[in-house]
Amino acid sequence: AGGQTYYFKIPDEMEQSIYVPILKAPENYASCDKSPKLLWVKMDDYNKTNYRLQISANTSFKSILIDTTIADNFYQTDIPKKETKYYWRVCSSKIWGASPWSEVWSFTVK
């Protein structure tokens, strides 16, 4: 019936894993003089990767202060409340899915 053969190629980027971001700065448990710039390792230079960043005042992330998706591997915070410990984590995402969350790190603004 018809005798035609069809071939499909899955794009290379769909065969790749979505990597869990590695947090870079400020160091875990850092005490910062001002609102820090959060930085993580850029996982993929040639495929479009977005990052979802969450900042919370508790480790359970039940009360999230910042929940944003960005294309860069950094985020300049604007923390209004001083002398408070904040927790942050990042996951990476592509059009076909998202990674698990990174480790949770913390910082305090003096």
Structural description of this entry:
There is one protein chain. This protein is mainly beta and 110 residues long. Helix content is 4%, strand content 40%.
Note the topology.
Layout: H1 12-15, E1 23-25, E2 30-32, E3 37-40, E4 50-56, E5 64-70, E6 74-76, E7 85-94, E8 97-98, E9 105-109
The count of strands amounts to 9
> What is the chain-wise order of helices and strands?
HEEEEEEEEE
What Rg, in angstroms, do the CA atoms define?
A: 19 Å
Alpha-carbon distance between the two ends: 75 Å
Query: Mean of the pLDDT scores?
Result: 87
Query: How many distinct helices?
Result: 1
Percentage of residues in strands = 35-45%
How would the global form be characterised?
A: elongated
Task: State the major sheet.
Answer: 6 strands, mixed
Q: What oligomeric state do the depicted chains represent? A: single chain
The unreliable regions are none
Percentage of residues assigned to helices: under 10%
Tell me the structural class: mainly beta
Which characteristics define this entry?
single chain; 110 residues; mainly beta; three-stranded antiparallel beta sheet; 1 helix; 4% helix; elongated
Would you kindly provide a brief summary of this structure?
With 110 residues, this protein is mostly beta strands. It has one helix at residues 12-15, and strands at residues 23-25, 30-32, 37-40, 50-56, 64-70, 74-76, 85-94, 97-98, 105-109.
